Fold this sequence. Notes:
The protein is mostly beta strands. The chain has 2 helices and 19 strands. The strands form 3 sheets. Strands 1-2-3-6-5 form a 5-stranded mixed beta barrel. Strands 7-8-9-13-12 form a 5-stranded mixed β-barrel. A hairpin with a 4-residue loop joins strand 15 and strand 16. The longest helix has 28 residues.
Amino acid sequence: xxxxxxxMAITVSSLLVLGLGNVAAxxxxxxxxxxxIRSPLVKPVLRPHLHGTLxxxxxxxxxxxxxxxxxxxxxxxxxxxxxxxxxxxxLSDLKVGSKVNVEGTWDNGTFNALQIHLDLxxxxxxxxxxxxxxxxxxxxxxxxxxxxxxxxxxxLTLKAPDGRNFTxxxxxxxxxxxxxQVNSTxxxxxxxxxxxxxxxxxxxxLPSTSSDKTASNLTAxxxxxxxxxxxxxxxxxxxxxxxxTTKDAQTVTLNLTSDTVIKHGPDTMSNQLVxxxxxxxxxxxxxxxxxxxxxxxxx
Length: 299
């Protein structure tokens, strides 16, 4: 009975030795313990960039308005114009008033441009307008905005923010709006700002590098005449005359009449303005004199 016990003891010892040997061999294949510590994530270095409105354009220098400050942007032979496959530009496509994104480097207060591309709203010929959401994906869109240059019986020509001209046909099915009201073509006047939706299947062409900056063969489904409006704070005044300082630091005079509607909230009517109120004003202007048709008091 003792011999089998010895045999089992020898077998168990052999297995333990073999097992420990395999563990040791496996351990030899592992990297050092300190190399298993996870390295911290390294964030990519982003190039400085600016977003603003062009105030002047020359062959070697741009001036850009950024949050109220004017910044000089230096151009060079290394400056790239365009933002990917959807946007091909040249220097001649940069117009005063266009909004641009610029990437580059700073050098003693001057920004050296490495890449410049138009804001996608300008690229699609669409103006900025609070509350309106336009396609900013770089693809074609059926929305078009700008200032009316001329009007005929069956079409209008407008200039988009990127400087291009568009001739858009009007048909019996075209719906005309000015705020909540439905209007006739008499509401379409030179100098008015409009937003247009094209008929189904039509899209606004993307800018090209050719010298032809006029697009036609477009048809309007809806035309929205933008009501002139101002947003700001009442800074002075009483009775029927008040001074409004707008968000752009412009000072205008509000001349109230018996037809001026003043609202405080969706259902509350008010008949009094006081200094310090934030307001949204709609109406007509003659220089800096505003004849308000409607004033909304912000909470």
